[in-house]
Structures are given as C-alpha cells and as structure tokens.
Amino acid sequence: MATVREQFDDQGFILLAGAIPADTLEGLREGLDPLRQARDTLGERPTRCQTILEPKYFHRSFADFLDLDVTNQAARQIIGTDQLAFAGLACLLGCAEHVVCRWHRDTANMDPVELDLLLNQHPNALVQTNCAVYDDESLWVVPGSHRRGDTQDEVAYSTRFDELGFVDVVDRVRAIESDVFGGMPGALNVKLTAGDCLLYNPLLWHAAEYRPEWKRCTLHGGWKDVDLLDRFSLLRWGLAHNPWLLDPGYMGDLGPNFGPQLARFQQAVERYVD
Questions:
Q1: Residue whose C-alpha is closest to residue 205's, from 154, 265, 163
Q2: Over the stretch 55-88, which tens digit does the pLDDT of each residue have?
Q3: What is the distance of C-alpha 185 from the center of its chain?
Q4: What total of structural domains would you count in the chain?
Q5: For residues 231 and 116, is the Cβ–Cβ distance under 8 A?
Q6: Helix/strand/coil for 211
Q7: Could you tell me if residue 272 is inside a domain?
Q8: Vertex 120, ends 118 and 121: CA angle to 5°?
Q9: What does pLDDT average to in each consecutive run of 10 residues of the chain (274 residues)?
Q10: What does the alpha-carbon distance between residue 146 and residue 199 come to, in Å, rounded to a whole number?
Q11: Quick check: is 262 in a domain?
C-alpha cells in the first residue's frame, strides 16, 4: 500500500476519512454555526470567514482541531520536515446564490521562474486543507496536475471562461459550457463526509460549486515549510492576515503540534511583515 507521501506526490491530494473526532466535530459545530447562520451578512460571494482565530470568532475547538495528531502527522510526512509553520485558518461558508468558482491554480501573480522551481523542486512546500464540519461536495480537482505545467487542453478549456468573473452565477457559466466541471480533462469531484479532511496541493487545477441549499461549513487552512519562506513569495502570502496571533494568550494551551507551528508563524511575521 502506498504511503501518505506517495499518494500525495502522485495525486496531489489525500483524503483522511474521519480525521476529526466526534467530540471535536461537535465543538466545531458549536463554534462555527453562528458564522454559518450569519453567512449572508459577512461579505461577497462565495462567503468565507478568512480569520476565524480572531478573538471575536474564536472557539476553543478551533485550537483543538489545529492540534490534531492525524492531520499534523500527515502534513509532516508530505512536506518532509518537522519545521512546519501555521498557514492560516478560514471557514468556507457557501453562498446565497448558485455560483461557480472557475478552474484555476493558486499561482496568481507568481514569477514564472519561481513557479517552475516550485513545481519541479519543491512541489509540497505548501499543503492546504479542506476539512468538512458538514458533508461537502463543492470541490473539483484534476489529479496529478500539481506535478507539471498546464496542458494545451487545460488552457484551452479554462480560457473559454475568461470573460466571466472568477466567481460567477451558474447560468452565465453554463451558457458557455453545460458541464463546467466535468468538461475539464481529468476532472474529479471530491466528496467529503462530515469529519473528513482533504489535504491537497494548491498547485492542482481546482474549481468549486456553491449551492445555497448546501449546509457548508468547511475549515480551510494548512501548513508551509518554514525553511523555504525566503525563496517563494507564495509561502509568504497571508502572514499579515492574523495580527492578533502575535499575542495568542486568549486561546489557552495550543498543544504540541499547533504551538510550535504558531511560534514559527510569529517569527515569520516579525521577519517579513512591515
């Protein structure tokens, strides 16, 4: 059987079924349901709360989640180091409209030379997570696309939607292509059951669907290789988003996994953020 690292290297993602224990999941629902219920007052579509560790949103279960052994052990195996830094924690809350987040990689504005180096020498420098507090079938990916550049078919398909917004209503998208997700070569729908955690490479081609009737409340965070922060601008993104984490006493005990990762995040903020 392939190891966690081998599966991730091959596919660009790995699904950890039932990674969130039942008691932690119950706590997460208690902490996140007020945000989910206030979804349509929080901002633009699709709605997310980008910084749920902010004191006004914080719930003790968030720190417990970030300290889980099963996800942190997998991240260390994938990235290949114990020197991981916290990479943020958001909550994906869905949308009041039926919208599509178009096919993309998380490489916007990256220098092409830097991107080529990241793809070919350090493809696992950043690992993201989607961890489902309720069942979630929003995400689509192209397995294996993290290990290479874009194919002609991928570029041809994705550019068909260039006249639309990055997120747009489904009717406008389907006027161009009725099967916007399945039409991408190699596309796969990743269906999460409550308690599942998907660890994935943000260099994958991915897209998402948001339906107003879906009860979505998915934790979106990750880890980065702290030793590569100097070399890749992508790894420094988000360092300025959580200033309150420089004084994290309000969160209580952070545990043996999250505690050191947050300390490395703090050191990175002090070094790179003006």
A1: 154
A2: 999 999 999 999 999 999 999 999 999 999 999 9
A3: 22
A4: 1
A5: no
A6: coil
A7: no
A8: 70
A9: 92 98 98 89 76 95 98 97 95 91 86 82 92 97 93 96 94 95 97 98 94 93 94 89 95 98 96 92
A10: 13
A11: yes
For residue 84, count CB atoms less than 10 angstroms from its CB and return exposed for 0-12, middle for 13-18, buried for 19 or more.
buried
CATH number reported for the structural domain that contains residue 22 in this entry: 2.60.120.620
Nearest to 91 by CA among 172, 36, 149, 41: 36
**Cα separation of 219 and 204, whole Å?**
19
Give the gyration radius of the chain's Cα atoms: 18
Rounded Cα–Cα distance for residues 25 and 16 (Å)? 15
Tokens 């219920």 -> residue: 37
Residue 215 lies inside a defined structural domain of this protein:
yes
Nearest Cα residue to 41 out of 96, 87, 103:
96
**Separation between Cα atoms, residue 254 and residue 258, nearest integer Å:** 6
How many other C-beta atoms can be found within 10 angstroms of the C-beta atom of residue 27? Answer: 18
Residue numbers of the domain that contains 88: 4-266
Joined together, the tokens standing for residue 176 give: 């161009």
